[in-house]
Amino acid sequence: MSLDELYRDVILDHYSHPRNRGVAHPADATREGANPLCGDEIRVSLRVRDGIVEDVRFEGKGCSISQASASMMTEQIKGKPVAEANRLIAAFKGMMHTPPGTEPMDDLGDLVALSGVRKFPVRVKCATLSWITLEMALDELGYGDGGGPHVNRIR
Ligand code: ZN
């Protein structure tokens, strides 16, 4: 099995069996994002307690890449400190915006499966949609990467 086939299988598995689909109850923030170029829609809801992303869920519709990326995102972010969530957001966006063939610099786990999408620049927005939506939700809560009292308190 080639690496591309392995990556494709990971993406199709998340698309067919999405993790953390639904709405967080209760949710501290809910944000919606859309990628009109492809028709992808994502709604991300999350709850943060004591600096930990206690729950993060998504709903949406669209192509396999957008929905699989959202599923993989929730799996990676759930239960993690907000600082780690922000690190992953930055690392994932960084990976998606480097040229195809460049090895990911940061530890992204299964998320490297989405690195193959870089060969299709029009699809990069599909992969980053849920991450940008999550970033907006964290910003709304004052947990954005820009810092602030909440972020400082976590460490
Ligand atoms: Zn798409």
Protein model, in words:
- The chain has 155 residues and is of the alpha+beta class.
- It has a single domain (3-140), classed as Sufe protein. Chain: A, CATH 3.90.1010.10.
- The protein is built from five helices and three strands; from the N terminus they run αβββαααα.
- The chain has helices at 3-16, 64-77, 82-96, 124-140, 149-154, and strands at residues 29-35, 40-49, 52-61.
- The protein has a three-stranded antiparallel beta sheet with strand order 1-2-3, covered by helices on one side.
- Helix 3 (82-96) packs antiparallel against helix 4 (124-140).
- The radius of gyration is 15 Å and the shape is globular.
- The protein starts with a helix and ends with a helix.
- Mean pLDDT is 91; it is low at 147-155.
- It binds zinc ion.
- Residues 35, 38, 40, 62-63, 65-66, 126 line the site of zinc ion.
Bound molecules: zinc ion
Question: How many domain units?
Answer: 1
> In CATH's first tier, which class applies?
Alpha Beta
Q: Which structural class matches the secondary elements?
A: alpha+beta
Helix percent reads 40-55%
The outline comes out as globular
Mean pLDDT: 91
CA(first)-CA(last) distance: 42 Å
What's the CATH architecture name? Alpha-Beta Complex
Biggest sheet details: 3 strands, antiparallel
Radius of gyration: 15 Å
Element pattern in H and E: HEEEHHHH
Poorly predicted regions are 147-155
Fill in the CATH topology.
Sufe protein. Chain: A
How are strands sequenced across the largest beta sheet? 1-2-3
